[in-house]
Amino acid sequence: MQKVFFISDHHFGHKAIIDFESRPFEDADAMNASMIESWNSVVGKNDKVFHLGDFSFLNREKTAHIVAQLNGYKHLILGNHDRGRSRSWWLDVGFDEVSEHPIIYKDFFFLTHEPMYMNKHMPFVNVHGHIHGQKYEGKNYFNVCVEHWDYKPLTFEQIRDSVVVSEEQ
């Protein structure tokens, strides 16, 4: 059975992110290798992954090499650092789908790179990235940045169940 996963902000090849976000890696190469391993430890070949932006700072060849190593059907929602490259560039490096705009998933989850304004009456949960180690308060936000989740994509069920539990509290 296919699982659906969510993750964001890998920043493959971005050496400075190690210091910016206190990532536990010696250098960008070690970070890249570890994040590929973490991804593949949970995502199977037939699973689907929504990457919510800021995927790679590397050139076309190196980015394609990383994408090829990652399990699953990969759907990229462009982040602020991805937008300097065209949608076709991202498809050429191996993403199966690329979205320039947010997506509503299962009529309830608003998938974006940057957190969107969500008042308490909004009928959605905003699954987002962009803010790395920070967190927005409230039941309408769910941050899937790699720093919060040991660099592993989260399943739809993990997010859904977390949202349901927080609503019951």
From TrEMBL:
Domain of life, source organism: Bacteria
Annotated protein name in UniProt: Phosphoesterase
Gene3D superfamilies per the UniProt record, alphabetical: 3.60.21.10
Xref: InterPro entries: Metallo-depent_PP-like (IPR029052)
